[in-house]
Design a protein that fits this description.
Elements lengths: L1 H13 L15 E2 L4 H9 L6 E7 L4 H14 L6 E7 L4 H6 L7 E6 L2 E7 L4 H11 L1
Parallel strand pairs: 1-3, 2-3
Antiparallel strand pairs: 2-4, 4-5
GO molecular function: protein-disulfide reductase activity
InterPro entries: Thioredoxin, Thioredoxin-like_sf, Thioredoxin_CS, Thioredoxin_domain
Keywords: Disulfide bond, Electron transport, Redox-active center, Transport
Length: 136
């Protein structure tokens, strides 16, 4: 009986196509309105060789509200392959001061805990994606 099952499986699998595997890039992480502990763990102590965009914003800032969905869309874009952390400058004033945030919105790009680039003001999706690709 066991030999018959083996033979049947062999015959059925012989004509089967080989398995194909694909690699899907890891999804980006998005951390909204973080506290100091999360900022340190996800930005400063991040060991991954991945760009982390830090969006410094305030709730009253109109351009910040326009930029937020664009940054989220870029972070979810597989081509960008970056994480997004948002920092409310009214809540984390010490972090905003440390990075000399004087205008809003300001987006600072980090890699392995170090600042690599930044831009100030609202940008469209194409410009943000280009910014990320230039520093990857």
């Amino acid at each position: 009986m066991l030999n018959a099952v083996r033979s049947s499986l062999r015959n059925n699998l012989a004509g089967s196509p080989k398995r194909a595997f694909s690699v899907t890039p890891l999804r980006s992480a998005i951390f909204s309105s973080v506290d100091v502990k999360t900022f340190e763990s996800e930005v400063l102590n991040a060991n991954k060789d991945k760009v982390v965009l830090v969006d410094f914003y305030a709730d009253w800032c109109g351009p910040c509200k326009m930029l937020k969905p664009i940054l989220t869309k870029v972070a979810n874009n597989a081509e960008a392959n970056c994480d997004l952390v948002t920092v409310d400058t009214e809540e984390l004033t010490e972090v905003a001061q440390k990075y000399k945030i004087a205008s809003l919105p300001t987006v600072v790009a980090f890699r392995k805990g170090k600042e690599v680039s930044r831009f100030i003001g609202a940008r469209n999706e194409k410009a943000v994606l280009s910014f990320v690709n230039e520093i990857k």
